[in-house]
Design goal:
By secondary structure, this protein is mainly α. The chain has 6 helices and no strands.
């Protein structure tokens, strides 16, 4: 079964698409969590329950958005590719491995696209979840720890992207880190602006 799945993945080049989706939607998830956490940080008076509920709700929404959008776009794309291949070969490929890949690979890519932001969001929320259960060290503020994890994950995603593209990992990691820091600074500045003099 796994050998067949691996063959279909290689046949359809789904692993390349899945990697791109993992990084893209994972980065979206990290920045969305960072935005929420920074919003809670600047307001300063939100309970753990509210923070966890809002972040989990956002994570589930990102999962559903990633799952459905990737499936819709990839299934349409794979169906189009199969039709084009059938036209060039002047035969039906309905019972072929190509048709099987066109049916299955959109689900695989969609799962990666949905699970990427969800899993990263849960990693970011770990300090808040553990603090709610009184398992987080009191000396480490859980909200600040979650923000640090979010910023660190953005750096690691950049490193991963650098490894994939063959670029210098520190450059790509630093660029992703800069985006996260700029995002946090924009939220801080907006809050200062809204609070007024």
């Amino acid at each position: 079964m796994f050998a067949r799945l691996r063959y279909l993945v290689e046949l359809s080049h789904a692993h390349r698409i899945a990697r791109r989706y993992f990084v893209t939607n994972g980065f979206d998830g990290v920045l969305a969590m960072l935005g929420l956490l920074m919003g809670f940080r600047v307001t300063g008076s939100t309970s753990l329950e509210v923070m966890i509920g809002a972040c989990l709700g956002t994570a589930v929404a990102l999962f559903m958005s990633g799952l459905t959008s990737a499936y819709i776009s990839e299934s349409a794309e794979k169906a189009h590719e199969l039709r084009e291949l059938e036209k060039s070969m002047v035969t039906s490929l309905e019972a072929s491995a190509h048709a099987e890949a066109a049916r299955l690979m959109p689900w695989l890519v969609a799962l990666v696209n949905g699970l990427s932001p969800l899993s990263l969001a849960l990693l970011i929320l770990l300090p808040l979840l553990l603090a709610q259960q009184r398992l987080w060290p009191p000396a480490l503020p859980p909200l600040d720890s979650a923000i640090v994890i979010a910023v660190s994950l953005s750096f690691l995603l950049g490193v991963f992207l650098g490894r994939l593209s063959g670029r210098f990992w520190l450059w790509t990691g630093g660029r992703a880190l800069l985006i996260a820091v700029v995002t946090a600074l924009i939220i801080l500045m907006l809050n200062q602006f809204l609070e007024g003099p």
